[in-house]
Each structure stands twice: as structure tokens, then as C-alpha cells.
Amino acid sequence: MHNTNDSRIALKLKDLQEKLDELRAATTYSQTDEYVREIVAELRRLGKACERTATNVIESFGAEIRDLRLANETLRAKGALHQAVFENSNDGIVITTRGGDFLDVNQGFVRLVGCKTKEEVFARRVQDFYSDPRQRIQMRRKVDRTGVAMDFEIKFRRIDGTEIDTLHTIDVRLDGEGRISGYQGIMRDITERKIAQKALQEARDELQIRVRERTAELAEANARLKSEIAERARAQEALILSEERMRAIFEAATECISIKNRSLKYTLVNPYMANLLELPANDIVERDDEEIFGQEAGQHLRQVDQRVLAGETIEEEHTRPVKGLPTTFLDVRSPIRNSKGQIIGICAISRNITDRRRIFSRDQSTAEEYLSPAMRVTLARASIAANSDLIVLIEGESGSGKDYLARFIHDNSNRNGGPFYAINCAAIAQDLAESELFGHEAGAYTGAIRRKRGLVELAEGGTLLLNEIGELSLPMQAKLLTFLDTFSFTRVGGEKNVTVNVRIMAATNRDLSQAVSRGEFRRDLFFRLNVYGIRVPPLRERLADIPVLTRQIVGQLAQELRLTAGLSIRPEDMEKLIQYSWPGNVRELKNVLERSVILSEGPDLRLDFLDLADTNDCESPWVVQFPPSPSMTQAMEELRRQFIEMALQRTGGNKCAAARILGISRYTLKRQMKALKMGGLK
Predict the structure, then answer these.
(1) What is the pTM of this model?
(2) Which of 17, 285, 374, 597 would disulfide-bridge 537, Cβ 3.0–4.6 Å?
(3) Could you give the CA distance from residue 146 to residue 247 in angstroms, rounded to a whole number?
(4) Angle ∠(148,152,157) on CA atoms, nearest 5
């Protein structure tokens, strides 16, 4: 019995030990206490002999069971915690076999790959989610070789086909024998971080590029600054040298140089101007032209300066009193501009040309010296014209002295301080007439190398005589009419409008009213010119003036030929001159006297080589009946024909000499002969 109980007890204990080992190996301790109590109760039922054994079992296994119970509770708590961490982690956690089958995944991995449930994940293999399956093989080899957890950055493909950047932490799983049975890993979506890293890297790269560029710019700027400093130093030295040179020129110049401000008061004058005015430079500064040159000259200069302040550059001749004596200056006035292009003053350079003008001026006679009534009447009308700036139309035969009368009007007008220019409109080519009158800009046409100022601009402040105005072409007549309306023009090839202060006088040997009726002269221009008309009588109508004219012409010849001894004419030769009819007018008289000066020996002019008495006989065939038959026009044509034939007979058919006798140009003679159909004459 005893043995039987011991065997049963031993079997129970053995069963209990196996059960405990099984429970311990399974790490599951539920119902352990109940199982042990059943075994102990059974042992107690076996009798007192087993009571000690039961007590020993209880004592030996009690502590272990309590430890197992405590471990079980701890393990359950840790398991619950681990399960919570596993499921609630934002990172994807995955456990796989070596072949790539999923054993378990958390919700983070489900969200990472874009699935809705774990079942969708378990339906695939882990390599299905790699963008490049070869990366998984490479990771496996590295982890298998090292046996430790490793980190990898790889591209992961979601179920919708999009790719994300992930950080993988992979470790191996070992079985009971230490062999690799699978893998476990943690995966984190680092797409945004990669984007941020890429953006940061791009920003760094851009920053480095900008730093390099900025460094290069700074280096270039530094080099440029050094160059500019050196250049500025050289420019400063050049400026100082230029200022020294300009000051030397300014102080040593033999011309008056002055600077005025916008108030037209002098701010600077050179020593030559101060010496010419016999005033200290400090006494000239802060004064204006009215205070220095008087009211009349000052007002003219003020008008000119106002135009300069408007942007014009003006060159003119002007006569003004200096120390009580009339002094003629060639003035060039131009605006002074600041760095912004604003006009802040005037620079004037004035050259004293009084002596030069005196040399080239004519010996003007007064009206009282002329004896003929016709010339006295003409000069009286000229004196009236001199008192105003009206346009004057001077009519008269060729060579009768129309230019002389225009000069007389200029010299007796308030413009006598300005220049006097005259141009023969018949002597200039029609295609150059505009350039001669109004000038041209550089490059306006072939050969126009530089800018040229026309006679209209050169006559600034003075008078311009348009001689033989009837010979202008119709296009030029239109341009002249436009100018007379505004007194402004544009140079040929230019864009800037130029305004001038000039008086216009015109002269002609043609009947302009007849030219208007024939369509050869513009009617509106004729009315614009014929404001105040003066007729110059031919020399045959004022033979009493021949002694005065002879004295003037001989005086000019002596001056031109630089003869020291005076020239004189015998009374009998003077009588011959008075008896002659002078078809060539004053021009013919001048030609005769020039020839006598050349051919005569000594100061006494002799006219023995001239047969002037016979020329009076030529008047007999020039008889015209009144009234003319058949018409006055035909009678005038016949008269011109006889004049030309007589001149050609005198010169032996030399047209140049005949034109000189007639007092017209060779071009005019040819035109007249063509109009009269005299081309057959030799």
C-alpha cells in the first residue's frame, strides 16, 4: 500500500513537474494554482503518509508558482504595452520570413503602403513594395553577413503606384538553433525630409553659387573701383592740367572772353576785355551790358542773350561804343549747361574786327554830293527805308548800283553795327541755292563733311541783300516765302529750327510784275517783297553824278592796288565820260576806270585808248516810236537784241567780254540769247 501510494505520488509529482515545465516553456500560467491545488488535494486523499510529501510539494512549488504568477502578470503587462506600441507606432513595423512572406505588420505599415487593412498587405509579398527589388536582396546580404540591425534609405512603392522615400532599420530573426528564420524591420516615411533636404541642398548650392558670384562681383567691383580710383586720379590730374591750360588761354587770349549768368550779369571776364574797357575786372562783374555799353547796344545784346538762353548758338557782327568810340566785334555766344543739361549761363567770345571792317568798308558819299535830281530822290527814299526794318525791293537795270543803294540803307540804319551780306541769286546753281542761303548739316549730302552756316545765319543782327531775286527757282521762292513769314528755318539735313534776327532786302533788274503774270515768279512772294520799293535810275539818267562816282571808284582802286600816290583824271577825259551814254551803267564805268588804271603810267589816268565819242553814235539806231508797233513786248525784245548785238560787235564775238560790258553774267547773256533765238551769232 505504501509502495503503491509512493508510486502514485511519484507519478503525480512527475506529472506535476512535466505540467510545470510545459507551462513554463509555453510561458502561460493560467489555472496553475487550480491545477496544483488539485494535485495537493489528491495527495492528501492518499493518506497521512503523503501529507509530508504534499507539504513539501506545496513548499517547493509555492515560491516558484508565485514567481511564475508574478512573471506572468508582468509579461502580460509588457505584452499589452508592446502590442500597444506595435499597433500605435507611426512608423511601419513588419515581420517577414526569409522568403518575403508577411508574418505580422502594424497599422503604421498599412498606412505607409496605402492599404486599408492588414489583409490587403498579407495578400502581397514584401518585395512587391520595393521600387527596385534588387535593393531588398542587397539589404538581406548585408544584414545576413553582419547579423546586426542596419539602416537603409530606399524607394518604396505604394499600392497606388506612387513612390516614397523610406528609412529602413532591418534586423534578423533567429530560430531555436540560432539560424536566420526571417527579418523584422521598422520603416519610416522620409519623403518630406528628403524633399526638405533636397530643397536645403539646392538652397545651399544656390547660396554657394551666389556666394561665388557675389565674391566674383565683389572682386570685379574691387578691381573696377581700383581702376576708377586710378582713372579718377588721372582725370583729376588731367582736369587740373586742363584748367591750368584754360586759365592760361583765358588770361593770354587777345579776344574778349566773358561768362554771364541767367540774369545776364557778368560773372567772369578775361584780362583782355578788362584792358579794352579800361575797367578792373571786379568793376565789370555783377554788371550788365546796359551799364557797360549803353542803353541802345545793351538792349540789342540782351535780345541776343535771351535767344542764347533759349538754346541757340549765335554768331554775329556788332558795333558798340567802347570808351566812346564805335568798335565792331565778331561775337560768338553759346549756352553753358550743367551736368543735367540745364542752361545756367552764357559764354561769349568777341573779336575786335574794327580795323578789318574799316579796310573793307566802302567810302560812302552823302546824298548831298550827288547832283542829279533822280539820284537825290532815290537816296531820299533810301533814307526813309533806313529808319525801319521793312523789307525793301530795289529795282533797276543791271549794273546801276542796286547793291550800293542796299549798303547805303544798311549803313544808315540801326543795324549798321551788324554785318552786311549780298548774294547774286543768278550766279549760284539752283540745287545749291538752299545750302547757300540756309546752310546744311554734316552728312546732308555727298561732300557735306561738316556743318555750314548759310548767309541768312551769317547775317545775324545785320542785313542780307538777295540780288537778282527774280532768278530764284520756284521751289526756292516757296522756301524763301516761308522764311520771311517766321524768320526761322531748318538747315539742309537738319532737324532743329533756327531763328535769326536779320533784315532782308531784294534787288532785281527784271519786271517782277510781268514775271508774275507769266508764272515765272510767285505772286505771294512778290507781294511779300514789295513792301517798300525803290528804283535806282540808270547812269544815263544821272550823268551829272559821274564825277562823284569816278572819285569813289578811283579811290577804291587805289586802296585795292595799294597805291600810295593819288590818282586823277584830266578835265577833257572827264568830259568824255560825261558825254557817254553808258549802256552798262556804273559797272561799265568801273571797268573803264580799271582799264585806265592798268594802262596809264603814273597817277594821271588817261583815256586816250578809248573811243568813247564814237559810241554815242550808237544811240541813233535805238529809236522807238510811241505808241509801239506792234507791241511794247516786241519792241523791248528788239531793243535787247540790239544791245546784245552791239556788245558782241565791240568784243569781236567774245561772250564773256560782251556780258561784262552789258553788266550781266555770262549765264544771263546766254539765257537772253536763247530766248531771243540768237544762238547763231559767233
Answers:
(1) 0.52
(2) 374
(3) 94
(4) 130
